[in-house]
Give the backbone structure.
Amino acid sequence: MRQQIDFAPGAPGIPARWTSSAKSGVGTALSPLSPVWFTLSHGILNEIYYPRVDSACTRDFGLLVTGPSGYFSEEKRDCIAMTTRQADGVPAFHVVSTARDGRYGIEKDIVSDPARPCVLQRITFRPANGAVDDYGVFALLAPHLTNAGMQNSAWVADYDGAPLLMACGRSRYLALAASTPWKARSAGYVGASDGYRQLRQHGALDPCCQRADEGNVALTGEIGLTAENPTVVLALAFGQSETEAAATALASLHSGFDVAQDRYRENWHRWQQGLVGLDRPHAGKVNAYRVSTAVLAAHRAPPIARPTGRAPSSRASPSHGVTTRATTIWAAITWSGPAIWSRRRAASWPRATAGKRWPSWTICVKSSSVPAIGRKTSGSTDGPTGPACRWTNARFPSCWPICCIVITIWPAGISTASCR
């Protein structure tokens, strides 16, 4: 650790906010040794959860790019991103981001390490104008430990001679390491002295900003890319102590990205092989059955605390509630729940009744691409009228045509029933 620490100005930073709930991916390693879940949106990592699926530890984690003549670009706002899965039913992601001005491109492969709680990104920077050395590429991480953007601390550290970026909050720690040494590092308060503001105003990180305590904080590191080696692996690890998080990040880097990726894929292929084969493949289209089952499986977790009855808010709480609801709807759209869960036990799901009497959610999917069961025409239904359809008719008269499915969410698992 450094003997002299320079504290960043501007405490405690601007009020913390959560990020977009428009997710393009969610993943986990399906390993008890890796209690970490990650989400993607706009080409970057968003909330990462540890050690439970309801404990968000980050807001977002993306890249900044600087260049000649004061050039500045932010990956999530200034790029067009395309996110694809490396295989059907395997939430290992390949992201290609292209700058809107055409000056650079970024390629990423993203998985979590099945052997430890660590999310890995293999990143390649490809300039379209000039050389790699003409640009600065920076990792920008916003810790939100745990389920809170304020009362976090961030600092620059070294562990076993390796330069790291560290953060803690509510007895949880994270460490960010790179396969190539950081050129520069910074810790600051969001909106006042964070790396985004430093680069936007001055084009470089301030070496005096080494620590920011008890606030809305951000970590920034300049990645050591060269023309000979434009690729880096970033390891974001978590732990119950500073030492544990740091050691985990370095262990993942030492083990290697390819090893983690291969084991990650193997776990998911093995899990998918145990499902009932209800695939309806179409050439050139996503296998919705395998994608939806993977999303559901990625939300499996040990039992969690029951909700307070207050609806989740993107400002007041992380978007894992939004993600869970979206996942449930996604399952209804695919119309495959009964067959899936007849052979696979679901995760522990909260009742999520939000003060209502019904221990279930009735999902109404407004889509013409799903079976029109209980379709409403001229005030009546032209199909079977089971209790779920009658309940839905009374409360959602404008949500037709729909596919009506009841998904009962119990602490022990999921059960589904349709109006057939």
Remarks:
- DSSP finds eight helices and 22 strands in the chain.
